[in-house]
Specification:
The chain is mainly α. The protein folds into two domains: 50 residues, no CATH class; 115 residues. Helix content is 78%, strand content 0%. The chain has six helices and no strands. Helix 1 runs parallel beside helix 3, helix 2 crosses helix 3 and helix 4 packs antiparallel against helix 6. The radius of gyration is 40 Å and the shape is elongated. The C terminus is likely disordered.
């Protein structure tokens, strides 16, 4: 005996068989299915196998999860969300602190440069001898500005490009971290509350 010949209408007949097992097949379609099964041994074998599987599912009692399953899952999800909030909160504080530290370091560096320009460059003999306190302050600020300008000009000529590249990389890194924190934060972009 040779191999069974495949049915040309197997997809349509399989759909009819599924509907028949679910009790959703119309009377006319039921007649079409019965006529086809009488004529097609391949579909008849498939129908018998589908009926056996359906009978197995009907015979076995449905088993649900153990008591407290939903509570345990909800508790685990809440714990996971709490850990995520702590992690992202810590990361936000860390990057915010780094940003604040960078601004503070820049201000301190500017003050140090001003003090160095004031004392180290020794360009203020007129200010030290002046009598009018307002003119002394204006002259000091002017000279400090000139000193800082000279210092920064020399400094930028020597280290300008690497410093600009370094600051650009640091700012880009901070931007990437902030975007990542925004997207991944609990309740954030594309968050469905399940993970």
């Amino acid at each position: 005996m040779g191999d069974p010949v495949e049915c040309r209408d197997s997809e349509r007949v399989s759909l009819l068989m599924s509907l028949a097992l679910d009790g959703l097949l119309a009377v006319t379609d039921q007649q079409v299915l019965q006529g086809h099964l009488a004529a097609c041994p391949a579909c008849r074998a498939e129908w018998k196998a589908m009926q056996q599987v359906s009978d197995l599912f009907k015979a076995e009692e449905m088993v649900g999860p153990r008591m407290g399953f939903a509570t345990r899952v909800e508790r685990r999800l809440a714990d996971k969300a709490k850990k995520r909030r702590r992690f992202f909160g810590g990361a936000a504080v860390l990057t915010g602190s780094l940003s604040l530290a960078t601004v503070t370091a820049a201000v301190v560096a500017l003050i140090v440069v001003g003090i160095v320009a004031w004392n180290w460059l020794d360009v203020l003999p007129d200010v030290k001898q002046g009598t009018n306190s307002v003119s002394q302050i204006v002259s000091g600020v002017n000279l400090m500005g000139k000193g800082v300008s000279l210092f920064l000009t020399d400094f930028l000529q020597a280290f300008g490009l690497p410093m600009v590249i370094g600051v650009g990389i640091a700012l880009a890194l901070l931007l990437v971290i902030w975007i990542w924190l925004f997207v991944k934060r609990p309740g954030g972009y594309h968050h469905n509350g399940c993970a």
